[in-house]
Write a structure and sequence with these properties.
alpha+beta; 17 strands; globular; disordered C terminus; 14 helices; eight-stranded antiparallel β-sheet; 18% strand; binds zinc ion; 505 residues; Jelly Rolls; Rossmann fold; 2 domains
Amino acid sequence: MKNKKFILTHAALSFLLCAAALSTFIVILSAKVSESGRHPSVTSIPVYSGQNDAAEELGNLQTESKPADSVALMFSSEQVSGDDLRCLQAKSVKWFLTFKSDARISVTAAKPVSQLYFQFEVPSRWTLTLPDGTVRQSNENGFIHEYVDLGQSVSEFTVDVAEGAVFTGLFGFTEGETPDWVQKWLPPCETADLLVLPTHSDDEFLWFGGALPYYAGELGYDVQVVYMTNHYNNSFREHERLNALWHVGVRHYPVVCEKFTDWFATKKYEWAVEKFGYENVLEFQVETLRRFHPRVVLAQDVNGEYGHGAHILNTQTLLEALKLTNDPAAYPDSAEKYGICSVQKCYVHLWEENQIVVKWEDFKLSQFNNKSAMRMADEGYAENKSQYIYYNVPSNGQYDCRKFGLAFTTVGNDTPGKNDMFEHIDRSEQARVYPSSISDENDVSGTDIPLLEPETVENSKRFPFAGIIVISLSGAIVLLLIFLAILLRNRSRRKNRVTGNETNH
Ligand SMILES: [Zn+2]
């Protein structure tokens, strides 16, 4: 009888443990599916006016206002099975096809197409051949969302895909205006009015607020976004970042550092330095500044916002790089490749000296139906669907996305109260100067940065499933302890009964 009771208890607790483990698995799986099952963003593409620099370049890509029809494409290949090729028709980026060797795909369209849209999981190489022998090749910048105007209507064509390519979709359209989710990226800027330096996808909205919708989307300045880390280990975030930037009117394709993959274990500064290497990041910063010759640079809090190590490393190396860009002896390879330059201004989020407060909520943007720059920052952030549930864009308080300090200037200090990042900046091409040496005025103040201890609560949010796993594991441990307690109690009772020492107190 006792043995039976023990077995029953054991069985019940085992069942509970299994149920806890199973529910953890289901919760994680459903979260993954809901993230990866998202569609390319359906956004309203702002219509640019004549004064918009990016719009003039984009003008070549604009088609007439008649909506294009989406056309069914049929794929066949000797190297890849038909079943595998079917995922190319799915809009969702959760399906992808990895090419383990070079392959040729023959494509037949249900009716003539003149526009194609490729989606890749990683930058991939391809060659398109049209029936008249015209050949088109993949963008050298490695776009993962790539629009191709064929310049003619065709009913069939071939795509030669290089080994290692990873496709998530290939879509065809008739002549006319493609749907809003088709993104038509311009190459990265030759030179940038504003260089924005987030560390991860979503930092550009969380900490810089309305800067991108205002300067890129509304004013049409040449804005280049360069991320210190890639998300190739969570590739849905690569798609999210493009959807977000596109939504707020950024048209120059972002640069993502290939060398530094985002990693949970970079939340502490020491870990970030160990993982990425201070020198490596410094070299990357100098090269980035020289590549884009920016007039104004926008960087994250040097204390890491909430103490994140990779954020700290990003801005600390930037502050040092600003002093090296016009020294040809410093990192001579990038000096040779891009020339030397001198940045005119650098604003750092939450920097305490020479502060400005840019009230993004007061900037009404005509390119976005008069929504405010702050509202567009929220919308851009919301495109980061995997992160959106963990944060909000902070428009006040400790992490206020409106507060910046002028940490570096070669054009003098700002007028107090003016709150204009482009004060004293002449955007004309003639005004761009490349001094051969750094003058004493180029002062970077406060580069001895006190480091903050990371806030573990905030950091744990960087990993979306950490909370779920911790809770589930805690539950499993509690159940296990209860099970052990009952087991010990049963044994103790049996022992007491055998020795006749059972007591009643
Ligand atoms: Zn970040």
